[in-house]
Amino acid sequence: MKVRLEVTKDGECLHQGTYEIDDSESFGKAWQDVWDELRERSLAKATSIGALMDSLHESTINELNGATIRLTTL
Predict the structure, then answer these.
(1) What is the rounded CA–CA span in Å between residue 35 and residue 48?
(2) What is the pLDDT of residue 62?
(3) Which pLDDT score is estimated for 58?
(4) 55 contact partners, CB below 8 Å, separation of at least 6
(5) Which parts of 1-65 are beta strand (E)?
(6) Runs of H (alpha helix) within the chain
(7) For 26, which of 1, 5, 56, 72 is 20 to 30 Å away at the CA?
(8) Is the full-model pTM beyond 0.85?
């Protein structure tokens, strides 16, 4: 089934993508895209080695904390 996956937080779109989701594996791959995008974004914001190490461990989870997830069938 083709779905649109949207993740928003405080009115800001953190991720939006269209995926073919048929099972747990394809669902997991869609979430891997979300995780990778958020991680890359946080790594790009890191301004020092210390900030980089902090972002590797906490920033992706912190960014997703309180986010709204919407799946829409297409």
Answers:
(1) 22
(2) 83
(3) 72
(4) 39, 42, 43, 45, 46
(5) 2-9, 12-20
(6) 24-45, 49-54, 60-64
(7) 56
(8) no
Residues of the chain with pLDDT under 50: none
Long-range contacts of 65-70 (CB under 8 A, 24+ apart): 66/9, 66/10, 67/7, 67/8, 67/9, 67/14, 68/7, 68/8, 68/9, 69/5, 69/6, 69/7, 70/4, 70/5, 70/6, 70/7, 70/8
In total, how many domains does the chain have?
Answer: 1
Instruction: Show the domain range for 42.
Output: 2-73
User: How many angstroms separate the CA atoms of 19 and 1, rounded?
Assistant: 8
Beta bridge partners of 19: 3
Q: Look up residue 7 and give its two tokens.
A: 């993740």
User: So what's the pLDDT on residue 63?
Assistant: 84
pLDDT of residue 20: 97
Bridging pattern class, strands 12-20 and 68-73: unpaired
